[in-house]
């Protein structure tokens, strides 16, 4: 069964450092998303991406965040200067169509720990 | 502000019991209601409900949506220890760019 792949599974970084979280969406999917889940809290929307541009972003997704689809397969989330409060599980998701007839397919997540 | 509220937040039952998880929503431009199961990491898709009153079933799991009362339930019959997980309810908006999650119900099944 096709799956969304995320790397790394766990990353520890020092405050102020830049991190890039990588995702390989399902190959025929056109819509891509990043969500995050701070430990013990709910899953929160960050950004959606379609046709090589951001469709929508939340208040969390400020100037420190950026997304990119550098080639035909990868979808990355960059945090320019990490803060302690960026520590969370980051999920990438993709869907074949807007909204996804079967919901979205989530990756297994990257746990980011900022120290 | 759009919101999705799940109850209870936590539930502990014995194997074999039947459980009902609740989800209410207040979302502008509502399109569909989604249920996910989250075990260790990624949420895995269970159901998408778009029409009111039509039950969706998958094995021991079933779910139904009431668009008049803005409410959905997820039923699990004959629970097993493998059902232990966080169950997430989410609302999909017509803008199709995001889904709004509830905080989840943490279900623990005792052997």
Summarize the structure.
By secondary structure, chain A is mostly beta strands. Chain A has strands spanning 5-7, 10-13, 19-24, 31-37, 43-50, 53-57, 65-68, 75-79, 88-95, 105-106, 110-114.
Helix content of chain B: under 10%
Which word captures the global form of chain A?
globular
Instruction: Enumerate how many helices of chain A there are, as a single number.
Output: 0
Please summarize the sheet with the most strands of chain B. Answer: 6 strands, mixed
Mean pLDDT of chain B: 91
Work out the helix count of chain B.
0
Stretches of chain B where pLDDT is under 50 for at least 5 consecutive residues are none
Largest interface: A-B, 24 and 23 residues
Instruction: Summarize model confidence as the mean pLDDT of chain A.
Output: 90
The low-confidence parts of chain A are none
Largest sheet composition of chain A:
7 strands, mixed
Query: Separation of termini of chain A?
Result: 36 Å
Shape of chain B: globular
Rounded to an integer, what's the Rg of chain B over CA atoms?
13 Å
Count of individual beta strands of chain B = 11
Write down the Rg of chain A: 13 Å
Count of individual beta strands of chain A:
11
């Amino acid at each position: 069964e096709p799956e969304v792949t995320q790397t790394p599974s766990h990353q520890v970084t020092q405050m102020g450092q830049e991190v890039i979280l990588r995702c390989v969406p399902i190959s025929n999917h056109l819509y891509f998303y990043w969500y995050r889940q701070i430990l013990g809290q709910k899953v929160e929307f960050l950004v959606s991406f379609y046709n090589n541009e951001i469709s929508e972003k939340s208040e969390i997704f400020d100037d420190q965040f950026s997304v990119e689809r550098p080639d035909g397969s990868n979808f990355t989330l960059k945090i320019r200067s990490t803060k302690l409060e960026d520590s969370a599980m980051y999920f990438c998701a993709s869907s074949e169509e807007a909204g996804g007839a079967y919901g979205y397919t989530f990756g297994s997540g990257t746990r980011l720990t900022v120290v | 502000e759009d919101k999705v509220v799940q109850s209870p937040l936590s539930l502990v039952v014995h194997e074999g019991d039947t459980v009902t998880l609740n989800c209410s929503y207040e979302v502008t431009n509502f399109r569909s209601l989604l249920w996910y199961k989250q075990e260790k990491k990624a949420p895995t898709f269970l159901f998408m409900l778009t029409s009111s009153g039509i039950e969706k079933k998958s094995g021991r799991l079933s779910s139904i949506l009431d668009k008049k009362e803005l409410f959905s339930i997820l039923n699990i019959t004959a629970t097993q220890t493998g059902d232990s997980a966080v169950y997430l309810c989410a609302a999909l908006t017509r803008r199709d760019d995001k889904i709004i999650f509830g905080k989840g119900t943490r279900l623990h099944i005792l052997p």
